[in-house]
Amino acid sequence: FPSHDKRLADYDLSLLMSRTLFEYDEARDAIKGLLNSWDFDSENGSYIFHIDENAKWSDGSKITSDQIVFNLRRPSLLESPFGKTISEIVNLDKITVLDKYQFLLPTVDKKPNKALFQRLSSIFFSLVHPADTKDNKVISNKYSCGPFVIKSVHSDEVELIPNQFFKPIENTLQEKRAKKIIIKKMEKIPQPGPNI
Question: What own/partner pairs with CB < 8 Å and gap ≥ 24 does 31-37 have?
């Protein structure tokens, strides 16, 4: 998986190794991703999100609400321009884990906000397993929740293998972008020449 542009390589790797909380269909309507349903509680001005209970990390362990909340509160995310746009929409200090597969996310203005879905469907919000972090920094990429997981890293190349626990959602824009990246990278792999 070589790339001469580090930003492009990081983006491509994020698409292949992570999954967004929401995905979009061709009509650009938010559909389930890691979150498979949601409700808005108008009394509290909060979304209640329900995690797909079949979603797993590459080691087979289930993705839980406390792991998603951990990611929403990561300082590296909060300090980024992307994180600041999320904090303008939701009150991140008041996120509440309701149970293993549900969490409550209050909006700042206590109203439903479509922009929140756009932010949480961005690949810039890539989930990181808490075990891959130390002192709020990503130190490894042992775990993946996307279609691929890292097998090995050699200088400027990354070798990926399929994540056996990844279950794709058909016909989403993320799935189509990931397929294009795979095809593009496969085309760049030199074909074996004739034996001499």
Answer: 31/169, 31/172, 32/169, 33/121, 33/169, 33/172, 33/174, 34/63, 34/68, 34/127, 34/145, 35/120
